[in-house]
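Appendix C: a fully annotated inverse folding record. The material below is reproduced so that readers can follow the format used throughout the book. The structure is listed first as tokens, followed by the designed sequence.
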């Protein structure tokens, strides 16, 4: 059983990005880039399924600029068997990525596609859902537990006030929540070994997909600054202020 794990190269979660002075986007020149954290969880889960003898092959795929090879290397270092880079310098929006992944699903026929629930750069939370629709596959989003057996995936997802358990007939699309697992530490020797496995490189045209952006971002803006706090002399004044000044939302 094959598992396809799409991984996105994004600005590292520790980097504080700034809006460009012309409000046209965020300045990521020279910023540290890493694998989207939810995708690390997805690759870890896929590799655990392989280690448990449930899956036979884990294929990592990334769509984006040539440097996304580094992201794929991280996936190989976690334990993926094979990597595919769909190289493009275009601004790849979720629908375009979903179409590219659909073409790969047709080619590779994985039983499970496991994606992150969202990319931390655009926070779209759309690609997995769009892929499931395009490929006509059942989907379960925000997985906090996944068990694959007997042609089914049983997964739990956190919902308001509890947990929901779903059964999906394979093949299926699953997206990962933060609590699904804690990805293993990627060691330097494993990264070095991954360098010996260059990814297969495709272009969107090879998959017959038009990735022209459909959405235009009009502007980016910083969130409003918090106004400065004030000091109060004693608890009595604090309680008074809380009563009069604080608005309960
Ligand atoms: P999004 O819909 O952009 O929030 O992304 C959700 C998930 O789709 C990510 O966590 C990745 O697993 C996958 N994904 C999004 N963009 C890409 C990309 N360019 N290459 C590979 N996977 C992607």
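Designed amino acids, in order:
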């Amino acid at each position: 059983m094959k598992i396809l794990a799409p991984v996105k190269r994004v600005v590292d979660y520790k980097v504080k990005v700034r809006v460009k002075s012309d409000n046209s986007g965020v300045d990521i020149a020279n910023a540290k880039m890493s694998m989207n954290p939810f995708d690390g969880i997805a690759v870890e889960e896929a590799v655990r399924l392989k280690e448990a003898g449930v899956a036979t092959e884990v294929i990592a795929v990334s769509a984006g600029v040539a440097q996304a090879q580094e992201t794929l290397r991280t996936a190989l270092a976690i334990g993926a068997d094979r990597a595919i880079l769909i190289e493009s310098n275009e601004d790849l929006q979720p629908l375009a990525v979903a179409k590219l992944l659909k073409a790969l699903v047709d080619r590779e026929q994985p039983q499970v596609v496991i994606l992150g629930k969202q990319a931390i750069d655009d926070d779209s939370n759309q690609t997995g859902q769009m892929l499931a629709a395009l490929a006509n596959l059942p989907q379960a989003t925000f997985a906090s537990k996944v068990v694959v057996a007997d042609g089914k995936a049983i997964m739990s997802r956190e919902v308001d006030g509890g947990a929901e358990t779903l059964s999906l007939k394979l093949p299926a699309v699953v997206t990962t929540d933060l609590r699904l697992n804690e990805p293993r530490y990627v060691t330097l020797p494993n990264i070095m070994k991954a360098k010996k496995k260059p990814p297969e490189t495709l272009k969107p045209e090879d998959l017959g997909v038009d990735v022209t952006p459909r959405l235009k971002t009009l502007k980016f803006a910083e969130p409003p600054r918090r106004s400065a706090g004030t000091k109060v002399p004693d608890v009595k004044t604090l309680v008074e202020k809380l009563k009069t000044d604080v608005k309960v939302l």
